[in-house]
Design goal:
Largest sheet: 9 strands, mixed
Oligomer: single chain
Distance between the termini: 71 Å
Helix content: 40-55%
Mean pLDDT: 82
Low-confidence stretches: none
Number of domains: 1
Strand order of the largest sheet: 3-2-1-9-5-6-7-8-4
Number of helices: 5
């Protein structure tokens, strides 16, 4: 009896790591299934209809020239749709590495993208379904940024007109790193980072900005896995822009603005 009592704590210590390992394996499997689930949703919603009478020959989907034309048409359709509005919108042309602000089809600001990368399912999977999805403007549903949407401008009221001076608190974003995430209605997230900064403090803030996003994603994945549900995967597009241009684009875009992407 005494021997059994002495061995019990050891058994408990062995059981703990096993349980943690099983949980981590389960979490990893569910996370790996997330991109596949998202791609399946995109194919079901934007893939060719099997019953469509005008369905093109499937051999065309492997024709690079045809797919290039399809991508251009999708981008043009999205831009045309946004041009019908009277609001500012953004177009990302990853083919020529440019980010543009447009109004009614006219480019009012253009900047060269320093570098970019995006999720594999947006490129190496179903080109037809992805192109069909991008043929519709993406609507911004939320954002997370290191700067305020509108700069704080404070004017002190003078005692009389002779003492009038436009006291203004300067825009602090001139000294703050510019990084933000745009959440789209189709689940895509667009990450915009300012180009590499020599200031260690800015690099550190970008690190914490990314860490906050990663922890938030991990928490959402954990909650889904806890109820045996495959997590919601968000395809991403990450671009780097000069600081001033990144700030201009963020503040020019309406909170519920639109974006079109060509890749």
């Amino acid at each position: 009896m005494e021997n059994n009592i002495e061995q019990a704590p050891g058994k408990n210590r062995q059981t703990g790591p096993v349980i943690i390992t099983v949980i981590l394996i389960f979490f990893t499997i569910m996370s790996l299934m997330a991109p596949g689930k998202k791609l399946k949703e995109i194919r079901l919603k934007f893939g060719p209809e099997e019953t469509s009478e005008n369905q093109p020959d499937e051999r065309l989907y492997s024709d690079s020239a045809y797919m290039a034309l399809l991508k251009e048409r999708s981008f043009l359709q999205a831009r045309t749709s946004m041009a019908e509005t009277d609001s500012v919108y953004m177009t990302l042309n990853l083919s020529d590495s440019t980010a543009n602000l447009e109004i009614s089809g006219v480019t009012v600001h253009s900047v060269k993208i320093s570098s970019f990368r995006f999720s594999g399912i947006l490129k190496r999977t179903d080109d037809y379904a992805i192109s069909s999805m991008l043929a519709q403007p993406m609507n911004i549903t939320g954002d997370l940024a290191t700067i305020k949407k509108e700069p704080l401008m404070v004017k002190m009221a003078p005692k009389d007109t002779s003492e009038f001076k436009p006291d203004v608190i300067p825009d602090t974003s001139n000294y703050e790193p510019v990084n933000y995430i745009l959440e789209m209605d189709n689940g895509i997230r667009i990450y915009v980072y300012q180009t590499t900064d020599t200031l260690k403090s800015n690099n550190r803030r970008r690190f914490y900005f990314d860490l906050r996003d990663r922890l938030s994603t991990a928490w959402q994945y954990a909650k889904s896995a806890a109820v045996f549900k495959v997590p919601e995967y968000h395809p991403f597009i990450k671009i780097r822009l000069p600081k001033a241009d990144a700030k201009i684009i963020y503040r020019a875009l309406p909170r519920k603005g639109q974006v079109a992407v060509y890749m």
